[in-house]
Amino acid sequence: ELKVADSTQEREIGLSETKSLPENQGMIFLFEKPDYYSFWMKNMTIPIDIIYINKNNIVTIHSKAQPLKNSTEGSIIYAPTEPSDKVLEINAGLSEKYNFKKGDKVTIENL
User: Fold this and answer.
1) Do β-strands 26-35 and 48-54 pair in parallel, antiparallel, or remain unpaired?
2) Tens of pLDDT along the chain (111 residues)?
């Protein structure tokens, strides 16, 4: 089950207001054209995997991205190695658990 972030405001907030995330849930960010969209962990409270997708294939996976420990800590910027048109955020470690890897085909239904 995915929440869809397809507006500017939804993309800015993302999962930052999420206190916990069931294993079967996540958020998908949809973009009109492929590009090097970057993400950071500002205001996040849970670790996540960030999966970049282009034309329904995984192009980059950032596994176990951690929230900031405190407000003075600098945030890491996560970006893909290739342009992407979708970004999937799921619980940290799920990409390893399910053996997701670059090049895997992704099917997204019922959006």
Assistant:
1) unpaired
2) 999 988 888 888 888 878 888 899 999 999 999 999 999 888 888 999 999 999 999 999 999 999 887 766 677 899 999 999 999 999 999 999 999 999 999 998 887
Quick one: tokens of 27?
A: 């958020």
What's the CA gap between 10 and 15, in Å, rounded? 9
Residue 41 exposed, middle or buried by CB count within 10 Å (0-12, 13-18, 19+): buried
Q: Is the pTM here over 0.85, yes or no? A: yes
Which of 31, 34, 33 lies closest to 10, judged by CA? 31
